[in-house]
Amino acid sequence: MFDCHFHTDLSYCSEGGMTLDFITKSIKELEHIDGIAVTDHSFALYFPEDVAWSWEYMTNSKVYDKFRERGDRNIDAYLTSLEECREQGIVPGLETEIMHDGRFTFDPSFRSRIDILIGSVHALPLTHNLSSSGIFDEWHKNTLQLLNAGIEILGHPFRWISKHIPVSDALIKEIVHEAKLNNVAIEFNSHFEIDTDSRMLDEVLKQDVQLAFSTDSHNTTEIGDFSYQMSILQEKGLEISDFKIFPSL
Ligand SMILES: [Zn+2]
Ligand SMILES: [Zn+2]
After folding, report:
1. CA of 156 to the centre of ligand 1 (A)
2. Model confidence over 119-151: pLDDT tens digits?
3. Distance 241 CA to ligand 2 centre (A)
4. pTM of the entire structure?
5. How far, in Å, is the centroid of ligand 2 from the Cα of 129?
6. What's the CA gap between 160 and 175, in Å, rounded?
7. Which ligand is nearest to the CA of 215?
8. For domain 2-246, which CATH number applies: 3.40.50.720, 3.20.20.140, 2.60.40.2890, 3.40.50.620?
């Protein structure tokens, strides 16, 4: 299996011990793992920790411009270290988001060095005491922007919205359809177990959309652990081979 989503200690959400050395050794030891895309957060490469978690850049991209040179240096070093581990089963990746002005939180000149780009909704502005429809509109706009921005995978597609409002079958159908139109894989993530996962799989299967298996590992015990995904598939009487898996190895 290929793990499409994985964090190292460079991401502020890492719980420690997540070094490239640990990952490459684990790939060698874990027979069922063919490779891992290391996808650290672009916001962790570009911003100091307090700025990163403030999310201010999502609504004020001048913050991004202020830290841009710092970020460019960090992402260059990050991608160089991943490129050096390709032979050991590591694929250079990145997890990113789109700011209010339509830009990613990393410089597009690095895009050609990123094999797997995950676009995710992490934080959206809720400063105006938004109604349910306002929350929905913010999320819907941002998700469609991500799907249109040339990403490979839509990360944890319904995590943010399901925390705020109920997710309808029609919405799942629409987002899966948009993913197909844009040739983007839908992520099946085990770090965040969402109650939309089962319905999302039904649509992915029905619409024949690519499915990405991700542990989204933040700690050393998560590496290679796809037991959540397997249990959901088993419950539904499905197998991995029923899906169009991303990436096709
Ligand atoms: Zn994420
Ligand atoms: Zn992640």
Report:
1. 7
2. 999 999 776 667 888 889 999 999 999 999 999
3. 25
4. 0.97
5. 27
6. 14
7. 2
8. 3.20.20.140
